[in-house]
Amino acid sequence: MLEAIENSAYATWVRESPSIFAYTSILSLHAIGLAIIVGIHTLISLRLLGFVSAIPLQPLRKLFPWMYLGFTINLFSGTSLFVANLSNDLGNWLFIAKLVFILFAMINLELTKIHVFDKPGPLAADGLPKNARVYAIAALVLWSLAMVAGRFTAYPNFVEAWLGF
What we know:
Elements lengths: L1 H5 L2 H8 L6 H26 L15 H21 L1 H5 L2 H26 L13 H21 L3 H8 L2
Helix pairs in contact: 2-4, 3-4, 3-7, 6-7
């Protein structure tokens, strides 16, 4: 079944077409989606850590739909890239690690929305919910790890040699 997916007309088109609408555009959409979700989540995280404190916190709640849009773009573009390289990606531990980091980053995003914006708990001295800094640091770490793992999926042998596997 996996071979049939990877050899489907769509996967072959993404992987082998010289058209700019194939791999190049899909990869560009993936970068745009990443910039949207990670960029906005980074802004919110920096605000929660005390940077850019001139920006009021509550209006940032309106940016969550934009992050969901970025994630949706990445879900569809990432799926296209995945089916084009299915056999390599499934056996690549860095790809699996990237997906795990993204999963935790999205869980963290939802927890931030709930516990910082929708139902904030007890406030710290700075007026932010006590767990806001934890969510902010987790977001920065998880998205960074996801991006590094994602970039290194093309170089698993280098990473394994570097780590001494």
